[in-house]
Structure formats: structure tokens, C-alpha cells
Design brief:
Layout: H1 2-17, H2 30-44, H3 51-58, H4 60-73, H5 102-124, H6 144-150
Helix pairs in contact: 1-3, 2-4
InterPro entries: Glutathione-S-Trfase_C_sf, Metaxin_GST, Mito_Protein_Transport_Metaxin
GO cellular component, one term: SAM complex
Region (Disordered): 82-101
Length: 151
Amino acid sequence: QLYRDARECLTLLSQRLGSQKFFFGDSPASLDAFVFSRLAPLLKAKLPNGKLQQHLKSLQNLCNYCTSILSLYFPWDGGEPPASAPRAAGADGGEAEEDPHKRRNQLLSVLVGLAAMLGYAFLSGIVSIQRGGAGPAGRQPMALAEEEEEE
């Protein structure tokens, strides 16, 4: 039943698209983004059961639709990524450094996060620091539970 419904949905999408470039004419709309996000993986991925994929491949206008969007918005798909895309590893097997200050930035991120958590803990009263000596008027520091009982 699920495959039958999916096949029907693909057929209806194919009929609605017809010979247009996009569902609502010559320019893409949010529906095009949504439909493409569902069709492209179905068309490109290797699936354990290819029944639905075969049906999609038989609908030539939907295949052309996906190919058109891929080439228009993702021209590097299937080829080299654009120059702005980060490189993974060098040809000699050594790791190419994406960001020369990556370790420093990671350490700073951890330190800022730790400082923020400690600041929140102190300002909200979760953690407080008491001095070891006698407090004002000769009072000794007391535990939190004792302070609450006194109030």
C-alpha cells in the first residue's frame, strides 16, 4: 500500500509538472525546494529496494527536473567542488590544514563556554563562595540548609 501511494504521488507530481521547468512556471518556489529535497535522494541514492526509484526514473520530466536543479544550483555535483569549498586531505596523505588556528579557536570556545557556565552558576546563586574566617559580628559561616532554616 505504501509503495502504491508513493508511486501515485510521483505520477501526480509528474502530471502537475508537465513540461514546465518548475512547478509554478519559470522560477522556483518553495514547493520546488520541498519536492526536490525528496526526489533527489530517491533518484541518486543506492537503495536496497529500487521499485520506487525505477518508477521515478520512468517519469522523464521529474528526472529532467532534478537534473536541471542539480546543474543550476549545485554545478559541482559529480565534479570538483567550488573553490570556496574546504579541501579534505592533501594528495600525499597528509592532512591539509583547513584553518591554521583551529586548535586555538577550539580551546577558546571551550574556555568561553566554561566561563559562561561558571558566571551563570555564581550569578544565579547555584554556587557561592564563603570566606573561611568569622563573618560579620563574629558569626561563623553556616551551611545553606541552616541559612534557610534561620530565614
